Amino acid sequence: MQNEVFERILRRVKLPLGELLGDKTTYRVSAYDFPILGAKAAKDLEMFDKFLVLSDGNLSVVGGVLFYGNTDIQITTLQKFRGKHYMSEIHRNGILASECYEGQQVSITTHAIRSFDDFKMKSHLLKLAGLKAKNIDEVYRYLSMLHYPEIEGYDENSFEEEFSYQD
To answer: What angle is formed at CA 145 by the lines to CA 140 and CA 148, rounded to 5 degrees?
Structure first.
């Protein structure tokens, strides 16, 4: 799903909706709840079983996680809430890990990487949730192509070793 579509859906969410999870700020919205979001949103979500809605604790939506079954996830934080650690909290507190499907896979969207530090932050968040990017080799090639100075100290194997979660 295009990120703009997911953000549009998130902006339509009026909390409380779905099930409030243990951290008291994250809601699990299931297919049962999708019609409440309107016909267009329900149509956009018809191939999904659930998504998470992150709030600021005061019923304002700050972002979400959309699950493509166990094959991938899409994570977004609404622009005005970026950099305020809402998303990192569900990685740290175990909520994201507990909502993942068995054998959950994830990928890092290369064109969404804004800098080497941004990539390191994304990799760190995945590790906190116990996840490994399935496309770490693609990420290495992308960062190499952009000639970030920080990538020069790595070959593909050392890069994968450092930035992949190991069981």
So the answer is: 80
Q: What is the pLDDT at residue 132?
A: 85
Residue 16: phi and psi, rounded to 5, are: -80, 145
| Pairwise CA distance, residues 7 & 143, whole Å | 27
| Residues 44, 41: Cα–Cα separation, whole Å | 5
Provide the 3-class DSSP secondary structure of residue 147.
coil
CB-based contact 159:136 (threshold 8 Å): yes
Measured from the Cβ of residue 16, the count of other Cβ atoms closer than 10 Å reads 11
Gap between the Cα atoms of 45 and 37, Å rounded: 10
Q: Cβ–Cβ contacts within 10 Å for residue 95, how many? A: 21
Amino acid of residue 113: I
The pLDDT tens digits of the residues spanning 127-159 come to 888 888 999 999 999 999 998 899 998 999 999
